Amino acid sequence: xxxxxxxxxxxxxxxxxxxxxxxxxxxxxxxxxxxxxxxxxxxxxxxxxxxxxxxxxxxxxxxxxxxxxxxxxxxxxxxxxxxxxxxxxxxxxxxxxxxxxxxxxxxxxxxxxxxxxxxxxxxxxxxxxxxxxxxxxxxxxxxxxxxxxxxxxxxxxxxxxxxxxxxxxxxxxxxxxxxxxxxxxxxxxxxxxxxxxxxxxxxxxxxxxxxxxxxxxxxxxxxxxxxxxxxxxxxxxxxxxxxxxxxxxxxxxxxxxxxxxxxxxxxxxxxxxxxxxxxxxxxxxxxxxxxxxxxxxxxxxxxxxxxxxxxxxxxxxxxxxxxxxxxxxxxxxxxxxxxxxxxxxxxxxxxxxxxxxxxxxxxxxxxxxxxxxxxxxxxxxxxxxxxxxxxxxxxxxxxxxxxxxxxxxxxxxxxxxxxxxxxxxxxxxxxxxxxxxxxxxxxxxxxxxxxxxxxxxxxxxxxxxxxxxxxxxxxxxxxxxxxxxxxxxxxxxxxxxxxxxxxxxxxxxxxxxxxxxxxxxxxxxxxxxxxxxxxxxxxxxxxxxxxxxxxxxxxxxxxxxxxxxxxxxxxxxxxxxxxxxxxxxxxxxxxxxxxxxxxxxxxxxxxxxxxxxxxxxxxxxxxxxxxx
Length: 628
Known about the structure:
Distance between the termini: 100 Å
Strand order of the largest sheet: 1-2-3
Number of strands: 5
Helix content: over 70%
Structural class: mainly alpha
């Protein structure tokens, strides 16, 4: 039983970035110099308050939590919801990731957005994004969590479409917003079903309702299974899983720091956090966990197969994120939330690094994102190259870097975990090889070989300023050493699930390491030793290569099966039902009244002679009727 200790400290973790957003919104344009201090400064303040709160939590012991009841939000007769914040080891990990990585991304943004005329609006959105994510992870009930859930959805729309004067950016922002609303519908239905079943939205009280959740059914389906699947639909939207992953690659239209924030520290981890936070419910629904594992494994494989042929450096990283998120859901599905959260943390380190490193490359190349026009950048951007190498090795799973520990824990969990399905482990190992291959390809095409840029770009090439490279160095150090943070053991304090890295046999570690080195070695052979080989290989693969290059035409399939029919249905409703039937009825009524009034209006001519004549006719008719 968790003992909650009252505190008023947690609210400041949320309030500080919110105050930063207000400052930048109302005063940022007039006090431009303050924006680049306030924006990152409030994140540093929130990080330090978070550290203080975690130290307080640690002093209370393992079965403790901090609770900050801000105010009573919904005081209904039998239903009450408070605006209250909750800090336990699970939310503490997320607070450190959001504020810590978020602070580094804010510092980096100072340099990256230096020349942008609307930097105040940018930091307003950035601070607001972090505020919403902190509400999401600190909420002590699902209603407040949903407020943060919708907040990150809104902020992602604002930030992806930040340069709204470009049509493709505005479209990408709308796509992210609409796709996430589909997932949110599932989340809401699951939430309503939970309230109907147990009458509460408090997350910490769910263990008290286990018996009700275990026995209740709806339409013959166990309620726990129905809620678990509905909430997973919400998670597939926020965390970009099949079938709702299509918004994330297009989200690259936003500024690169936004990509780093979305992919590393905030939005895409929300779905993973939700499933881990609701572990009590999912423990009652193993079939829902099986679905989570299968969807996660196939998402990881599909995205890796697409990433391997993309030529836009940010698109490669975007599909890499979708693939790594698939790993996290695989870990959740096989019953290892600690391993999944471990990969959330290490992924935040190396994916934040890789996106900011890609931004440094794009910054140095004058906006160029096509890797076919790069190469040899190690001579021009040595610090960016060195830190990107650390990120590449970490995500590839090279021991003893951070990705090796967290990824191995998930893959071995699929083979021998609480809900193991060895064939999912095989997919996990295959994806590990593909990850090393596409990341090795990215690094080789960008930093090794011969520079393929035009003369103007060559003249413009330069290393990024210190305000951008310093966050890269910090993230590189975390990517290298982050695997030694005992995240699974910390999460186990909340979920009670065992963690299995220590039980992985030697052959599994050797296999995982061999796949990482094999993928990187193959990439080096193809893109540095024999740079003509990929062209011949693509020609030999023919349709398979084009299918991967075209992203398996999933967007086109959605367009044909969903978007066009919806547009056609909307067009029919607009022209036939709305304009023809409803507008016709309304306009017809108006015309009828108008015509009737036009006839009656003839009686009101304003001519006294007409009125006298009418009066005379009326008197004659009246007398005639009286004398009949």
